[in-house]
Amino acid sequence: MKETIKRLVEAFGPSGSEHQVRELIRQEISGLADEVRVDTLGNLIAVKKGEGSGVKVMLSAHMDEIGVIVSYIDEKGFLRIDPIGGVRPLYEVMGRVQFENGVVGVIGMEKLDKRDQVPPMDKLYVDVGATSREDCPVNLGDVGCFARLMVETGKHLTSKAMDDRIGCAVLVGTMRELASSPHDVYFVFSTQEEVGLRGATTSAFGIEPDVGIAVDVTLSGDTPEPMVKMAVSLDKGPAIKVKDGGMLATPWVKEWMIDTAIKIAIPYQLEVLAGGTTDARAIQTTQAGIAAGCLSIPCRYVHSPSETVSYDDVLNSIKLMVAMLSGPVPVKG
Ligand code: CO
Ligand code: ZN
């Protein structure tokens, strides 16, 4: 699994430019689905047909990551950038941006009023070593992601794009491990989540599942003076979402996840997140309403170049998904 994770998290894929990630996933799941298609928004939809009288289940993990887009190039060849998704200048300054054509640039910063002030986005620029607009190796409108290789930090894995390639990896692992299911399972690798759940919105509408589950990261509250007070820690198992800023999980879906975790004796925790949301919100509110929940992988330093998850939590998330899909869905309460 670690090799798959490394390949996925190091790939280039800001929102709207997920094609490299999509091709990698296509290779990883080759031969595992009955049908694979790509829709207009770029969502990769792999269907595993059920053996029996199951329901239609949609799983969703987003392929895109936060990034930047070139908004202006000055006469000396320095770039100005706009954020794609929830970019925080504090986390990115003096780091590096990589563009799709391979060009790498340093994220520099203008002089600030106060020395230790957090820079606003418009004080940042990218230095790609150009000397003029003419010799600049990137163009207006080119997109970039933050450049950082994956490292192992003890039992944890650290990378620029755990959000949400680790969810993609959990879906890939689930496809590999799932021997048989009574359900038609739609594995959706979605696009443009970071800019407003756009891929999940259209794919859920098209699939019209009976139940949907997003697999995404959530914040953890287990570091010194954490930014949010939260009862989620790394290494304590997958977090079963109760609510976030955009969704209240459908009660029977949440219970299905909890009961299964207990049955197969894996650790789990409950997640109550104040802000932010996932593809599950888009699924739940499509059509005339769809039952939905979310399996969250606890993550430190979300939306930074060093997003960190527990490898054990990842393996337990796959076990939970496989066990849930192997049996019938509970009677809907
Ligand atoms: Co995110
Ligand atoms: Zn995410």
Describe the structure in your own words.
This protein has helices at residues 2-10, 19-28, 89-92, 162-177, 198-207, 251-263, 279-284, 311-326, and strands spanning 35-38, 44-48, 56-62, 67-73, 79-84, 96-99, 104-109, 124-127, 143-146, 151-153, 156-159, 184-190, 211-219, 239-243, 269-272, 291-299, 307-310. By secondary structure, it is an alpha+beta fold. The protein has two domains: 2-65 and 160-326, Zn peptidases (Aminopeptidase, 3-Layer(aba) Sandwich); 68-146, Peptidase M42, domain 2 (Elongation Factor Tu (Ef-tu), domain 3, Beta Barrel). An eight-stranded mixed sheet has the order 1-2-12-3-13-16-14-15, sandwiched between helices. The protein has a six-stranded antiparallel sheet with strand order 5-4-9-6-7-8, with no helix packed on it. Helix 6 (251-263) packs across helix 8 (311-326). Residues 163, 194, 303 line the site of cobalt (II) ion.
